[in-house]
Structures are given as C-alpha cells and as structure tokens.
User: What shape does this take?
Amino acid sequence: MTDAKKLFIKTYGCQMNVYDSERMVESLAPANMGGEGYVVTDVIEDADMVLLNTCHIREKASEKLYSDLGRLRPLKNAKPDLKIGVAGCVAQAEGDEIKRRMPLVDLVVGPQAYHRLPDMLRGLSKTTDTDFPVEDKFDLLPQRRATRGPTAFLTVQEGCDKFCAFCVVPYTRGAEVSRPADRVLTEARGLVERGVRDITLLGQNVNAYRFGFARLVRDLAAIEGLQRIRYMTSHPNDMEDDLIAAHGDCAKLMPYLHLPVQSGSDRVLKAMNRKHTAAEYLALIGRFRAARPDILVTSDFIAGFPGETDADHQATLDLIRAVGYGMAYSFKYSPRPGTPAAERLEVPGAVADARLHEIQTLITAQQRATQDAMVGREVSVLYEKAGRMPGQMVGKSDHLHAVHVDDSQGKVGELVRVKISASSSNSLAGVRISL
Ligand code: 5AD
Ligand code: SF4
Assistant: This one.
C-alpha cells in the first residue's frame, strides 16, 4: 500500500461537513477503490488530490474557498496531474460556475452526490454533480466506518424545510430527509465495535427526525458500550415531549442542548420566519431545565438582521440574560443570494458590528461563569488524547467542557470521574477520583 495516492482534504463549516469529509475519505480509500484509491495526507504538497469540502452559510465562508483555490495555483502548475475537487454547499450552490471562475478545478460535487466521487475519478460519471439523486448516498457509501478516537458524528437527518428568511440550507442541502432507524442503529453499533463511546447525532433539524427522535435516542442508549449520546442542531418548533423527558431519565443522553433562537425580538423572529416567539422559546428551555436542571444550553444568534432596531437588539440581550447560556455562536447577518432576506434593506455594517460585539461580550461572560461554576464539582470525563504535559490526559465532560486531568495511568477511551480544581479561559483542570 506504500504507493497509494494521497488525498488532502480541507473541511469548512459545520459538523455535518466534518462527517461528510470522513465519509468521502472512506469512499476514496484503497479498500474501496483498489489501486486507484487514496490515503489521507496532512501535507498538501504531497497530495495527488486536494478536496475542499465547502460551506455556503455566510459570505465569508464561500469567499474563503476562492482565495484557497487561488493559492493552489502554483501547486497545480508544478503538478499538472494534481486533481482538485470542490465538494459541499458552495459546490451545490454554484456548480459549473466554480470551474468557469477557477479552471484549475477538476471536480465539483454537491452534498447529496458525493457517493459518486469514485466513479467521477474513474471517468465513469460527469465531473460536476449537484443532483439530488433518488438513491440514498448512505446506502452506497462504504458501510465500514473509519474511526478516530472515542467520539464520532453520525448524520441521521439532512436538509431543512423551515426556510428561515436568511438561510441557504434549504437550497444547498435540500428538503428534509431522515435515515431509517435500523440503518442509523447499524452504523452506531459498527462505531461502538470500533471503540467509539460518544456519538453526536447530526441533522440540520435533528429533532425533526421523521421516525421519532426520542425513540431513536432510547434505542441507541440500549447499545452496550455506547456511553454518551448528544445531538445537534434542534429547532424549537420540532421538540417532542419525550425528548425532553429523555433528558430526565436516560442517563446516556448528555445534559447539553444546542437550541438556536437567532434573536430575542418577536418582530425580528417573525421577519426571520422562525414561527415562534421569545416567550415560547423561554418556556421550552424551562421545560428542559425542569427535566434536567443542570442542562447546559447553547444557541446561535444573528446580529443586524434587516430591519433590526436598537430595541430589537436590546430584546436579544434580555433573552440572553434570561437564559444564561453555557456557550453560543453569534454571527453578523450576511445576505445570501436567493434567500428572501437578501432583498431587504440592510442594517449599516458598523451598527451590526457593534451589536455583534455586545452579544459576544455577554455570551463570553456567561460561558466563563458556567465553566467557573464547575470548580469543586465531580464530573465524568471521556479521555480523547494524551495532554501536552507528561502524565496528563485530555477529554470532555458531560457538559462538553474540555478537561485536563493529571492521570499517568489514563487511557484514551476511558470514562473516569474527575474532581474539577481550576477553570481557565477555554478549559477546566481536575484530578481523577479513584473509585
Ligand atoms: N447570516 C448570518 N448568519 C447566518 N446563519 C445562517 N444563515 C446566516 C446568514 N445569512 C447562522 C444561523 C444558524 C447558523 C448555523 O448560522 O445563526 O443557526
Ligand atoms: Fe437554516 Fe432555519 Fe433550516 Fe436552520 S431551521 S437550517 S437556520 S432554514
């Protein structure tokens, strides 16, 4: 296998792209393609193929693709046989336009067509594929998953039917599709057999899973050897009672909820087509906290949505104060071609920047307070790798905090109890408790 060709893959954007990149790597591996297959390299200069798995959610994300492609030109000139592929949501949105703008690109493949990559490379199918094929890519990808460490992502649902006024996802990922539960359970069992202990179920609207999301979580919890279950991203309007209940009675379901709200103003929520109010969102968080009082809540916010006034912005800050987030992502509104909001009058950039800054400052303080409050508590930590210091292990707590533990006996994949002794800007430190 020493002469296998080499693949450099760069992933932009969300966790689902991370998952898709892993699946592309598996499908291009020598085990699937024989002598024509690729092994992954971290050294771009050694690559026979460079694959960029792109994100289209905000303007900056797609600009990044074009600047990275420009920087690949000298490498392509030096190695004319180098293949350059663009995958993901920019590929979906722009298709052949990418090849016109950047003739060095050989392959363009959308998120629903990447199972056809091996055939593309063999010259058996078209080199721009942005179809939403009738076949299910998951059935055609290699079933044996390559794993790296004790954590893994598992896509259970893709696409979105919500059409928030700012968002490209319904156009790039397509309509909501759920994978049958038996396939998800089979993939999960395969991951656990290969050492995975912590699975994050992924979907643009994971709780809109058609075959009962809480049922799926409970069936996964029955897999012996699987210790932790997480999920993201959820929509407030698709929350089932049983999922909330599972947070109270299913020990493997982690106390962590990513529930984006985007804004705290009812007026803006309406203009965004979110179809819920701030009060309804707060009531929902209240129900999760009643089921699992220590649940850590995270969200996404957009600052400077078209038409947002200062009073709307204040309502967002009020909502953030009312919830008390453990973490949150916040973004400056970015108009996306083809979305309804892109037609509307924008808030001046400097105003949006100032609002974003205020949101981020408040959230950073809440994040730090949540983390600091863990000091003195006992938590479970799943070791993911050795730390930089000798005799140190690093892992994640139930609440997804990074924890450094002094433990010279520790092994990757072990789930241990730890007493937290200190909190620093991005992680906790603690001591293993011997049982
Ligand atoms: N501008 C800014 N942020 C956006 N998001 C989605 N679309 C846009 C946009 N046009 C953010 C939302 C979403 C997250 C994944 O990205 O907050 O929840
Ligand atoms: Fe985009 Fe809204 Fe769908 Fe989330 S729910 S993917 S923000 S359209």
